[in-house]
Amino acid sequence: MKKNTPTLLLALLLAPLAAMHAAEFHVAPNGNDSNPGTITQPFATIQVGVNRLQPGDTLLVHGGVYRETITFPRSGTEQKPIMLRSYKDEKVVITGCEPVTGWTLHDAAKNIWKAPMPWTLGTGRNQVFCGDEVLIEARFPNQPSRGLEMPVSGLSKLWPTFGEFANPEPGKQPGRIVSGLLDGQPDNFWKGALYLGIHYGGWSVQTGVIESSKSGEIIVGDRGPIHWSAVHTSTADDGRGMIVGHMNALDQPGEWHWQDDVLYLIPLSGTKPDNVVAKRRQRAFDLSGREQIRVEGVSVHAGSARLQDSADCVFDRCAFEFVSHFTKAGDSTSGDIGIVVSGHDNAFLNSTIRYSAGAGIHLRGLRHTVHNCLINETDYSGHFLFSLYLEGADDFLTGGHTFTYNTLCNVGHSWYGNSPGGSRGRWRSPSLTLANLFAHNHAFNGTLLARDWGSITGRYFSGGNLNGVPG
User: Fold this and answer.
1) Which pTM does this prediction carry?
2) 136, 265, 313, 426: least buried by Cβ within 10 Å?
3) What is the pLDDT of residues 399-416, one digit of tens each?
4) Are 448 and 463 contacting, i.e. CB atoms less than 8 angstroms apart?
5) CA angle, 415 then 158 then 119, to 5°
6) 342 vs 471, which has greater pLDDT?
7) What pLDDT is attached to residue 39?
8) DSSP annotation string for 160-192
């Protein structure tokens, strides 16, 4: 103990000196980026404030809506982390959306309005809101067929409205889908739309582009890479499916369709659309490659955070809503599929993560912590992603995570699980990972979109050894 006393005394003596050199900057919606960033003359954008931060500095963000993606040009240190937090717990919202204006009436009989929207995030990835309410990309059917309703009440309208569709001859015509819901429709009524279906084994929603259609059937090409034909040919397909992304599906208030830089919308109110915004950016925060960054007390709307190869970064008392959105198979393995974390020793504490087509948090690397968080309504696309999705590697440079006192609920597949990653999983040999601590979590309403799955899964991972016996 005695030999540590000088070190402790030196730290105590240096702490006030470090505080003297730490700076505070302010950001507010009524600010100006040419200001010095004081409380009376704040910056207008968070990014300009972040650019000024040196190790030990703090950026105080005043209440308001900020439309930007925030990247950090430098790291903090263990003794001097960089801080970003809300000023006096005011409501700070960082959004991935931009306003859509200039509405004119397109079809008076159907009350369809249109406005310029010269951007897109890609097929199935756009998302539109009226105020805080999410609107739905036009889909068919509008309501699920009897017996195919979601098994849990009170979910958001983002979940699929599946009708009865079947894949009758997967060996001969894997792209031919039939349904009585299509009876009487003219030829090519759905050409170019996206089809989402769960067939036979039903491990995952699969998608494809409709190449042609006629009364009673559609022909689906450009199909997803797995499970479309992973079938039990001795049994009939009691499948389920849905069609999205076509003007002919636009027939209900609160639906929209994007085409050729134009957004078409049937407003919820029945009058001219107002306060409509559409997602333009995938991320609110990018801390990739940074260390010792701490973000506290902010809300993120229609955006995610990326911590790729980051270390010792923390989000505390933050709220993420509409973290990711996609409908097309394949998007679940690339791009922004939720909050993405790699590197080591990063943490999400006392936060909420709600509404993600993909994962809540997608984790790689070492010793991350998720503690006292609510992760709700994730994997509503049904594409093999979990509330807490752990990706493995070919060596021991993964795992050792801590997941404690979280609530995990309403997920299309698993609450918690491993994906092999690397080459081992592809050959179905055991993948290596350090032990994770999963304790005191409250989990319910799992596997809402899967027929054959586990709410907690560890695919191809070794369970270790107990007394020399492999687990």
Assistant:
1) 0.90
2) 426
3) 899 999 999 999 999 888
4) no
5) 115
6) 342
7) 97
8) ---EE-B-S-TTT-TTEEE-GGGTTPPTTTTTT
C-alpha distances out from residue 172 to 57, 175, 229, Å: 65, 9, 10
Q: Say if residues 416 and 436 touch (Cβ distance below 8 Å).
A: no
Amino acid at 202: G
Nearest Cα neighbor of 70 from 56, 89, 49 is 49
342, pLDDT greater than 70:
yes
Interatomic CA distance for residues 78 and 361, integer angstroms:
25
CB distance 446 to 434 below 8 Å? no
Report how far residue 69's alpha carbon sits from residue 84's, in angstroms, rounded to the nearest whole number.
Answer: 14
Question: DSSP assignment, residue 67?
Answer: E
Q: How confident is the model at residue 222 (pLDDT cuts 50, 70, 90)?
A: confident
Q: Assess whether pLDDT exceeds 70 at residue 21.
A: no
- Distance separating alpha carbons of residues 442 and 410, to the nearest angstrom: 12
* β 347-349/319-324 pair status: unpaired
What are the backbone dihedrals phi and psi of residue 31, each rounded to the nearest 5 degrees, phi first? -85, -170
89 φ/ψ angles, rounded to the nearest 5 degrees? 60, 25
